[in-house]
Amino acid sequence: MHIDTITSPELEWQQEALCAQTGADFFFPEPGSSVREAKRICGMCPIRSACLEYALDHDERFGVWGGLSEKERLELRRVSR
User: Is 45 flagged in the annotation as binding?
Assistant: First the structure.
């Protein structure tokens, strides 16, 4: 049996994301683990800016989004205020 997932138009960009093709392990590592591989993949991703914008707009607190870690996004929010 095949179950189709319903994708919100707001999230259609995720279908083009390289992370969708590699799995979440790199992007949501265990605390203290390296995010180097996730950032490398993000650096090649054609929709990196849309991903980062989504993470900032939705206050994503975990994982690597748009090439930035949780701490980097937090710092970006602080500087942007």
Answer: yes
Instruction: Write the pLDDT tens digit of every residue in 25-79.
Output: 889 998 888 999 999 999 999 999 999 999 999 999 999 999 999 999 999 989 8
pTM for this model (two decimals): 0.81
- What contacts 24+ positions apart, CB below 8 Å, involve 29-38? 35/64, 35/69, 38/63, 38/64
> How is the chain split into domains, by residue range?
10-80
16 is in an annotated binding site: no
Tell me if 73 is assigned to a ligand binding site: no
44 annotated ligand-binding residue? no
